[in-house]
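Shipment paperwork, digital attachment
Item: protein structure file
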Amino acid sequence: MTFGPALHSPVVSTQWLADYLGADELVVLDATVFGTVVENPQTGASTAQYLSGHESYILGGHIPGAHFADVITELSDPDGEHPFSRPNAQRFEAAAGALGIDNETTVVVYDAAVGQWAARVWWLFRAFGYDRVAVLDGGLKKWMLEERPTDIGHVAPHRAIFIAEERPELWADKAFVEGVVTGAIDATLVCATPPKEYSGEVVTRARGGHIPGSVSIPAASLVNDENHALHDLKSLRQSLAPALGKPRIVVYCGGGIAATAAALALTLVGEKSIAVYDGSLNEWASDPEATLVSVE
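Attachment content:
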């Protein structure tokens, strides 16, 4: 068996990737998705809209040799009740294999945002039993700021066979979150949405606000504004302090994407028992009986 380069952390530096770029059994993935909030001029309601980053990957440039990972379609369940619902094991195996990934591959994933899309792909692999995956610290932003090489055009992967082993404990469902809210389950709820969504000032789904008892740790606050690299471990521990120490940490956001960026940071500081509420506020807010809290 020939394994790709060894990983010692769920995050690798741009220098690490530059050193290993082109190595056998190393696959680099661009997981970029572009999101925006659009306001309806007639109703005043805001909705989140998402666009694949594939065109930007082809025309704007990507890390040499990187394949494009389609988070919107291939790495989500198209029949899911909400956008970005996680795929089942069979669909994920097919998507990973189509990207040239087998169970000996080392995977490094990045995006052109603040790392949340890369973190989502990292979490999916983790939840399907595969840990030879890391997020590129700072993503494409940091890579380009350092004037490292990029290519344009599509890079076609060679198909491979990937076998998943599910870890259901890495996901939380609505019933579990309800148990946390009522106090029946001892866990911390972490909301990774932007502050104004947490407070209810900005509403991008059926209802605004946050799940009762949640602490606000916006995903974007975990990275440097200039180069999108994660803050150092001391700073991360300070930001994450309200969530640390519980026997279970459940992270959520609008649709289970930014939540995985918080899960990545929590993993980096040593937390082990983390679950992502995949339905997140898309599911919770659609239930009129599910309580949401707004900050006055």
